[in-house]
């Protein structure tokens, strides 16, 4: 559920062993964006009542 909320579920399922894939200590086998999505998923797991805020496209304009 947390991975889905963080939009990380797609790339997690593509990993060699899915969510059971062992990551390196510095997680160097993931892109920066994937690491960011995992951090969001971990935050959701830590406090499920607080979902991540979605930024509007205008924020980056």
Top keywords for this entry?
61 residues, mainly alpha, 3 helices, 41% helix, globular
Over the alpha carbons, how many angstroms does the gyration radius reach? Answer: 13 Å
Q: What is the count of helical runs?
A: 3
* Strand segment count: 0
Structural class: mainly alpha
Distance between the termini: 30 Å
Sketch the major β-sheet: none
User: Uncertain segments of ≥5 residues (pLDDT<50)?
Assistant: none
Q: Give the number of domains.
A: 1
Overall body shape? globular
Please, what is the average pLDDT? Answer: 78
Beta-strand fraction estimate: under 5%
Q: Helix coverage percent of residues?
A: 40-55%
SSE order, as H and E?
HHH
Task: Please give a structural write-up.
The chain is an all-alpha fold and 61 residues long. It has one domain (2-55). It has three helices and no strands. It has helices at residues 2-5, 9-14, 32-46. The longest helix has 15 residues, at 32-46. It is globular and about 30 Å long. The mean pLDDT is 78.
What does the secondary structure layout of this molecule look like, with pairings?
Blueprint: H1 2-5, H2 9-14, H3 32-46
Gist of the model:
The chain is mainly alpha-helical and 61 residues long. It has 3 helices and no strands.
């Amino acid at each position: 559920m947390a991975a889905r909320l963080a939009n990380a579920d797609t790339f997690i399922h593509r990993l060699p062993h899915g969510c059971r894939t062992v990551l390196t200590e510095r997680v160097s086998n993931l892109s920066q964006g994937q690491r960011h999505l995992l951090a969001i998923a971990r935050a959701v797991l830590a406090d499920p009542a607080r979902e991540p805020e979605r930024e509007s496209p205008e924020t980056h304009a």
